[in-house]
Amino acid sequence: MGFVGYGVQWLVITNVIALPYILVFLCCLLAGLSICWFNTVCFVLCIRNFPANRSLALSLTVSFNGVSAALYTLAYNAINPISTQLYLLLNALIPLIVSFAALIPILRQPPLEPLPPDGVRRDSFMFLLLNILAVLNGVYLLLFGSKTSGVTSARLLFGGSILLLILPLCLPGLVYARNWYLHKVHSSFRLEGSGFILVDVDELEIHKGMVTREASFDGYQLMNDDVVLRTPITPVQKSFIEDDNNRSCCSKLITRNQLGMLGEEHPLFLLLCRSDFWLYYIAYFCGGTIGLVYSNNLGQIAQSLGQSSETTTLVTLYSSFSFFGRLLSATPDYIRAKFYFARTGWLAVALFPTTVALFLLASSGSLSALQAGTALIGLSSGFIFAAAVSITSELFGPNSVGVNHNILITNIPIGSLVYGFLAALVYESHSTAGSKTGSVVCMGRDCYFLTFVWWGCLSVIGLGSSVVLFLRTRRAYQRFEQDRIASSMLYS
């Protein structure tokens, strides 16, 4: 779909063929559908193939979406920096080539079976290495993605980015070599002794238990009164008990029709009847979608502030910080052993930088404010895009995540239309017609001042919705954490 959609657009732009407007519109629609299809397949593959490291796999996969703009800029500068139509050709060819290359190992993989403890440790170590390489990719593209140089230098920089992208293919061999070394040469070294454990082996059954309702109910029985009396109360458990004893009228209102557990499957009708889903929808609509619309208008925003020469730098800045934000979405899984916080709470934290950035952009039109605001919005929206898939899986069931998440992200085209129309009204109200082309041009802070104020107020609504969602779902997350603690006590 992407090959046809973007390819036909490239033929039209380069005057190879001529098509009526309606057919070009359909090509744009087909190209957009290909992105949705591609992302959904990637999400489903991650969830099915990495059940014990689901959120880590999702955050890593989604994170590389954030650097695609910087990578395509490097490719554009290396191949032909004069022809802007090259972006359409790259969009048509690169995903198709990568998809065929990835299809071979996907089709030839063995049947999925529960991993032994050694397999879980190996996956954990590989995810650690992959995240390190991902950070190196992000830093490299941030430093060199917008650098203007000659064709030779651009090709060297592009070759370096390709090398960093294919370097993870060497990780399986490195991991097996490391395991052989530890087993044969230095058997006293064990991964369990590491102070940075991504996934505890004893938690594998708890992760499996999220998939079925029966397993979750069985797990909750582990924390009955007899077990609590026989085992010492941890600080985490004590905080849970204090929360239960200090319930007020407001908290009772929040707990109405509250989720009882994580991982319960929600078909379409039940999903649409859940108030938690609509709070989640509003939080995404007034958070991550605003960041996406901001990135789409970044060139025009820079032009109105007299910073047209900085457009490429700003796009690379947004892309790179979006990439880092997507990587940071795995933070709850990395630090869970020392500090546990519900993933919906992290969503509320991630929405806050967008609000700060929008009001910062409204208050100042300087280049430093534009760069800082772009970086904050990229970081925030990147975190939201990556964490949203895991949140959808946890709140509404992993088996239905493909359908449920696509229902959630219907807010993206709706938000793009609403926010884009709002920005266009404000822009045109302060614009003047060009003398030659008659095109609408607006220069100055007023072009987007009211837009930033409105977007900032809407982001406050999204922040409030995310806080309410966190308060409504934290009990389900606490119960899951209680299961994990009780299970670790029984295994210890």
Looking at this protein, list some descriptive labels.
two-stranded antiparallel sheet, 24 helices, mainly alpha, 492 residues, globular
Radius of gyration: 24 Å
Q: H/E series, N to C?
A: HHHHHHHHHHHHHHHHHHHHHHHEEH
Strand order of the largest sheet: 1-2
Strand content: under 5%
Structural class: mainly alpha
- Record field, number of beta strands: 2
Ends apart, CA distance between termini: 53 Å
**Tally of individual helices:** 24
Q: Main sheet, how many strands, which sense, barrel? A: 2 strands, antiparallel
Task: Give the rounded overall mean pLDDT.
Answer: 75
Shape: globular
User: Share of helix among residues?
Assistant: over 70%
Residue windows where pLDDT falls under 50 for at least 5 positions = 186-208, 210-231
Could you explain how this protein is built, in words?
Helices cover 73% and strands 1% of the residues. It is mostly helical. Strands 1-2 form a two-stranded antiparallel sheet. A hairpin with a 6-residue loop joins β1 and β2. α20 runs antiparallel to α21 and α23 packs antiparallel against α24. The termini are far apart.
Short description:
With 492 residues, this protein is an all-alpha fold.
Break the fold down into its secondary structure elements and pairings:
Layout: H1 2-13, H2 21-49, H3 54-63, H4 68-79, H5 86-108, H6 117-144, H7 151-166, H8 171-184, H9 204-209, H10 213-220, H11 225-230, H12 235-245, H13 249-254, H14 268-273, H15 275-285, H16 288-296, H17 298-304, H18 311-328, H19 331-334, H20 343-363, H21 367-396, H22 401-408, H23 411-429, E1 432-433, E2 440-441, H24 446-491
Helix pairs in contact: 1-2, 1-5, 2-3, 2-22, 3-6, 3-18, 3-21, 4-7, 4-18, 6-7, 6-18, 15-24, 16-21, 16-23, 17-18, 18-21, 20-21, 20-24, 23-24
